[in-house]
Write a structure and sequence with these properties.
This protein has six helices and eleven strands. The protein is an alpha/beta fold and about 220 residues long. Strands 6-7-5-4-8-9-11-10 form an eight-stranded mixed β-sheet, sandwiched between helices. α1 packs across α2. It starts with a strand and ends with a strand.
């Protein structure tokens, strides 16, 4: 794993085994905020007034999407339940090296670091508003009776990790999304649109993060 500074000054990791960075080289933090927080969570909450919201993230990785989501939630009175799936967790030391405390409150960053390891064992209170659980499992082996309001799909690109974008994987994810819930990801392709539409989703093209013209937001009907 090599640390890489991205276009907005924030860091990402280059995974040599996969051949790709965890985040956009154009800007890790700005991609996370735009794709997942703004186009995903914020959009959902503007459609539905909720006091509680649940998020499932496919590819927890460095925790960047989680910490950006926490920062957003901390300015509201909403309770957040967050479950991340991660087949190959990063060590606490590597997560700490990412330095994302520069982009959120130092207290929130430290609360995340303090609870990161425990969250693999059971749902853990990061703050009074926020519960985090990270499931160390491969996607197709993940099971739960729960359904979620928003799914952050943040797998590596299909060219590097095609199995994550297969019809089988997308169908497996779809069962965990509530009717009216969202599936958001940084990419948009013809195959992805056709797959999600066949699974009973309304497809929306949203403006992409820097470096991408468009991204996909899908609403479960």
């Amino acid at each position: 794993m090599d640390l890489v500074t991205t276009g907005d000054g924030s860091k990402t990791l280059y995974n040599a085994a996969v051949g790709e960075c965890y985040h956009s080289k154009h800007g890790a933090v700005q991609e996370s905020k735009h794709v997942f927080v703004n186009m995903g969570l914020d959009y959902f909450l503007k459609q539905y007034e909720r006091k509680q919201v649940s998020i499932l993230e496919i590819g927890f990785g460095t925790g960047l999407n989680f910490i950006q989501t926490c920062s957003y939630i901390s300015s509201t009175d909403i309770q957040l339940s967050y479950l991340g799936i991660e087949g190959f967790p990063l060590t606490l030391d590597i997560v700490q090296e990412m330095g994302y405390g520069e982009y959120v409150s130092t207290v929130l960053w430290q609360q995340f670091l303090d609870n990161y390891s425990a969250s693999f064992t059971e749902p853990t209170k990061v703050t009074a508003q926020i519960d985090l659980h990270i499931a160390q499992t491969l996607l197709l082996e993940f099971k739960t009776d729960r359904q979620f309001d928003v799914v952050y799909f943040d797998a590596f690109a299909a060219v590097h990790q095609p199995e994550m974008w297969s019809d089988e994987s997308l169908s497996h994810i779809a069962q965990f999304i509530k009717p009216g819930g969202l599936f958001v990801t940084y990419a948009i392709t013809g195959n992805l649109k056709r797959s999600m539409k066949a699974l009973g989703f309304k497809i929306e093209k949203a403006p992409g993060a820097p470096g991408k013209r468009e991204m996909l937001r899908a609403i479960k009907l």
